[in-house]
Specification:
Blueprint: H1 4-18, E1 33-34, H2 72-84, E2 89-93, H3 96-106, E3 113-117, H4 122-130, E4 134-138, H5 143-151, E5 157-162, H6 174-184, E6 187-191, H7 206-209, E7 218-222, E8 232-236, H8 238-247, H9 249-252, H10 259-268, H11 272-295, E9 309-313, H12 317-329, E10 332-333, E11 335-337, E12 348-352, H13 359-374
Parallel strand pairs: 1-10, 3-4, 3-5, 5-6, 6-7
Antiparallel strand pairs: 2-8, 7-8, 9-12, 11-12
Length: 375
């Protein structure tokens, strides 16, 4: 017999299905050409990360970092990551979600204010929701709107942005944001999830590529995308690291990353020689995709982006799902992004380009989209 609670859940699920919002899990198929994963440089695709030779590493950490889960390996990794990202200090988290949740729920305090770009990731917004600070959004990449918000705010302000936005693929105006922070005294916090591994020397991110490390209060780098492993790190000052250890609940109250995962993070950050050519290949593929899109007249439906994330606006959940299904049937693994994940009317296909996609695959994808549109 189904309980009253389960009846309520089923009713809400049926309502979501009726609106075309129902989510289901899908596995990636080796038969399909990958245009949906965040494995931008093919680290997972080509199995570039192996177990360290001669080291037998535990599969679990046995506890939180503050109990039994700390290790010399974890501290070695944090020293390495601080150096790699040219920061005074680094603290590992189990995921980018945990890192943003821990940072924004603990560092901004009562009496502070967080001003965040309206397209910031859900993990940032959930961290803000748990904070005692006030919060306001500002229109995406709109510096005038940001300044107008700051003019009405007193006390310590934190400005939260992504360096490369996960759904639109465009970049934050970091140089201009630094100038806003200098004038206002605000602290800039940058989520580098989709820039880590792609931009800057060795893949140190967009902040590093622009030489702005000392101007940014805190950065979050995640490893589950271009670096092909798992986990995340907050890089900032030593004081911020110590504070997070003491007050970030998503760090304190969770079992630490297993040593195997930490070793993979360290290995991924030593792949610089192999990944340099892949970064160049990725850039060539981005340019090739944009050229093909212009030739086929798809460029007007693309959100302006020069990164590996290209979003083709479709409009309507059903239409986006229909187009994605047609492309899957043609051999391309693409996924629709539906409202409310994106605003209503901005439903899209989020096309992820990779270093390993061939020119024929990219041309074939664009042609297949055009053919479905004209069918």
């Amino acid at each position: 017999m189904i309980s009253a609670i389960e009846q309520r859940l089923c009713f809400e699920l049926e309502a979501r299905k009726a609106k075309g919002l129902h989510r289901v899990l899908r596995t990636q198929s080796d038969r399909l050409i990958d245009f949906c994963s965040n494995d931008y440089l093919g680290v997972v695709h080509d199995r570039l990360i192996d177990a360290p030779e001669g080291r037998s590493l535990a599969s679990g950490a046995t506890g939180s970092r503050l109990i039994s889960g700390n290790s010399i390996l974890a501290e070695e990794a944090e020293h390495m990551l601080a150096s790699f990202y040219r920061a005074p200090s680094a603290l590992l988290f189990n995921s980018g979600y945990d890192a943003n949740l821990g940072f924004f729920s603990s560092i901004p305090r009562r009496g502070d204010t967080i001003v965040y770009d309206e397209l910031c990731h859900a993990s940032i917004r959930d961290g803000i929701r748990l904070s005692f600070a006030k919060s306001y959004s500002f229109a995406h990449n709109d510096l005038a709107a940001l300044r107008a918000k700051l003019d009405r705010i007193q006390g310590q302000v934190f400005i939260a942005v992504e360096s490369v936005y996960s759904m639109d693929g465009d970049q934050a105006p970091l140089v201009e944001l630094i100038e806003v922070c200098r004038r206002s005294g605000a602290a800039l916090v940058v989520d580098e999830a989709h820039a880590s591994g792609i931009f800057g020397e060795g893949g140190c991110g967009l902040v590093g590529a622009l030489g702005l490390e000392t101007e940014v209060f805190g950065r979050v780098h995640t490893f589950g995308k271009a670096f092909g492993c798992h986990g995340a790190v907050v890089v900032s000052s030593a004081a911020v690291r110590e504070y997070l250890i003491n007050f970030a609940r998503s760090f304190i109250y969770t079992t630490a990353l297993p040593p195997q995962a930490i070793a993979s993070i360290m290995c991924a950050h030593t792949l610089k020689p192999q990944l340099e050519e892949r970064r160049r290949n990725l850039q060539r593929n981005i340019e090739l995709f944009l050229d093909n899109a212009r030739t086929e007249g798809l460029d007007l439906r693309l959100i302006p982006s020069t990164t590996q994330i290209q979003s083709l606006l479709v409009g309507g959940n059903m239409q986006a799902k229909k187009l994605a299904s047609a492309l899957v049937a043609s051999g391309f693994d693409v996924r629709p992004i539906l409202s409310p994940t994106v605003p209503k009317g901005a439903e899209r296909l989020r096309l992820c380009l990779h270093s390993f996609n061939s020119a024929d695959e990219i041309g074939g994808l664009v042609k297949a989209i055009t053919e479905v549109d004209h069918a």
